[in-house]
Sequence to fold (273 residues):
Amino acid sequence: MVEIRKAIAELDPVWTRIRTEAEQAVVDEPLLGGLVHSSILHHASLERALAYRVSLKLASGEMSEQILREIADEAYASNSALGIAARADLVAVFERDPACHRFMQALLYFKGFQAVQAYRVAHWLWQEGRHDMAYFIQMRVSEVFGVDIHPAATVGQGIMIDHAHSIVIGETATVGDNVSMLHSVTLGGTGKEEQQRHPTIENGVLIGAGAKVLGNITVGRCSKVAAGSVVLQDVPPKKTVAGVPAKIVGDAGCDQPSVSMDHLLSGQQVLGM
Fold:
């Protein structure tokens, strides 16, 4: 039995760690035993746990938890990339958010992580041509989490959305891998054209709280957008932009700003929260 558990842990160390944390959480706080068991310990995989958690949060009088859970289970079974992305997102939250001390926190309590996983199910539905169901999930994610991501938008993995309130990501937006953003960020459009009208955020970008990135522009890899900025033009890679409208104010200052979460310019000017 020990050898079997070791083999499982090696195959899926993220899920193994979550289960270990959950078992300790029940010991530390028995009153949460029901929640922890139903959300984590009752399930054989992270995918099944995510399907349960997402469906429970999004269920309403209009759509039952059972139907939503069947949809989510189908999505995870049909596309293994969803589970891989979820693990990358979870690790990103743990590594970048100093308020996150355990993997299970993001799964159980963090609406940014939960909203992104629900979006991933909606995006799968969109790709399958089931647009109305995708729109329904988008609506519920917006109502429940305060996060509005169009199901047609393309979002990479290793995404961390801290606090997550009032996030808006438009239909033709593209977000790369290992991107971090704070609350009240908008990736919006300009005009009414039906083609590409939203921004492309390349890998490793850090976007500060309240920043607005508008139109068919590109924020280059490993760049930083200061809090409260309004970005209307392309941002070169590894630069920092700030202001309304945003202008280049210096280099990014590190190779991976989205991982370091450093919101300072030259150690003095605050760019983030």
Q: What stands out?
A: Residues 79 and 124 are 8 Å apart (CA to CA). The chain is about 45% helix and 15% strand. The radius of gyration is 19 Å.
